[in-house]
Known about the structure:
single chain; mainly alpha; 12 helices; about 75% helix
Amino acid sequence: MAGIDYARPLTASGNLRRRRRIDRLMRGSAxxxxxxxxxxxxxxxxxxxxHGASEISFAFLTQNSPEQLYTPGGGIANAIIGTGLxxxxxxxxxxxxxxxxxxxxxxxxxQRTAAPIRLALDLLYGxxxxxxxxxxxxxxxxxxxxxxxxxxxxxxIIMLPLIARTTGEALALVPRELRDASQALGIxxxxxxxGITIPSALGGILTGTVLAVARAAGETAPMLLLASVFxxxxxxxxxxxxxxxxxxxxxxxxxxxxxxxxxxxAWGAALVLVIIVLVASLGARALQQRxxxxxxx
Length: 297
C-alpha cells in the first residue's frame, strides 16, 4: 500500500503501552486476589489446627460425649457416626437422581428442554442451605419432630445439583465416536448409554460424588434445624425415628455452652470436620486427574 514505509522498524505506540500497563495491572490484581484467598484459608486452617490439635486423641475419636458439660474427657464418636449415617443416606438419594438427570440432559434432551432444567440446577446449586433446611422443616418436620432422615433429605437436595453438573461434564467428555460405533453395531441408544457412556465417565461421576459428600459433611443449617438432638451422649443408628448426634451440632453446642473445656472440644471437633472435608476434596482431585488421564488416552 502507498504511504507505508516497510523498512521502518515497529515501535510501541501509546495505545500499545497503555494496553501493556492494563495487562500488568490485571495480572497483578488477579495474582493478589488469589494470594489473599490462599492466605485467608491458610490462616483459618492454622487457627483451627493450633487450637484443636491438642484435643485430638484416640479417646476423642472413639468415645462418646460425656454426660455432663464442662467435664474433661469424652469425645465425638457418636457425632462422627451420626454424620456418616446422614451423609451416606443423602448420597444414596442424590447419586442416582443426579446421574439420571445428567444422562437425560446429555444424551436424550433437546436444547429446548435442557435449558430450563440446567437453569433449575444452577438456581438450586446457588440456593442457601438455610433456605433448603427451612423448606424441609416446614414441609416435613413441623408437627412430626426432627429425625436424621429429614436432615439427609436436605443434604441430598444440596448434593443433587453438584452431582448432576459434574456427571454431565464427565459424560460430555466421552468421545462421540464411542457412541456412534456402538449404535452402528445395532445397539440401542439406552444400552449404549448404560454399557459404554456411563462406564467411560465413571471417574468423573465419582469425583463429583466425593465433592458433594465433602460439601454435605460440612453443612450446618440442615443439622441445626432438622437434627438437633437433645441427648448428645449416646450413639444412635435410628436415622428414621430420631435426630442423630452430628459434628456440626456438636461444635455449635460446645461453643455456645462456653467454658474452657467445651471450647477446646469445639476446636477439636472443628479440626476433625476440616480433616474429613480436606481428605474428601483431595481424593476428589486425585480421582479427577486420573479420570482426565484415562480420557486422554
